[in-house]
Design a protein that fits this description.
The protein is 76% helix and 0% strand. By secondary structure, the chain is mainly alpha-helical.
Length: 261
Amino acid sequence: MNRSRNNTAKRVLFFLILCVAVYLLCIGEASPADFLFPTVHIGVEKGENPGDISMLLQIVLLLTVLSLAPAILMLMTSFTRLVVVFAFLRSALGTQQTPSNQIIAGLALFLTFFIMMPVWQKINSNALQPYLNEKISQKVALKEAINPIRQFMFRQTREKDLALLVKMSGRKKPNNPADILTSVLIPAFVISELKTAFIIGFVLYVPFLIIDMVVASVLLSMGMMMLPPILISLPFKLMLFVLVDGWHMIVGSMVKSFMVG
């Protein structure tokens, strides 16, 4: 029982440390090897030396980064592309708030878990489990945990966006991917994901836009100018989307795009 509790505590601490390290890599020039891992003790007592104050500041920093952890992790996974494409799809269909924002975010989140599962498995086998079994140190575990995430982002990032961020950072041209800082890789990855999502959104818009134009032309030729075309085109767009099994096609294509990349 005690060993199980210790493993659970180590898992939570490992996750918090990973979030802190990623945050520090984004805001500065720190590296996993330079990162100092704090030891957290919960309690209220009189401080006897300056080290106690340092520990308090570390705890405050840890809690601050924990509040930013969801945003950090979402921008480093497939979530960005998925949620943007689903938002474009809803707009193209013209269904207003159907499906709702909660459903779109939930579907994108669970698909993100599915797509990122190989990355999580690498982190678990190469970093978390050896760390829990006390086979590797915290610094080594952190390095092994960040590497699979970096590899995933490199596969989905365009060289043009990466070169732009490297140039704007003012650093010399890297010789290999290992020389690129995580603080440079993450924004380049997000930019590439947004462009890919907008391209997919444009492709999704075309067939529904054609239906809107045809319906509007028919209504205009019939002199029914006061009738909103959306009232007539919406059932046809829904029928087309259902007949072609739209959710199956879109979700399948999105998942395959990450697998191939």
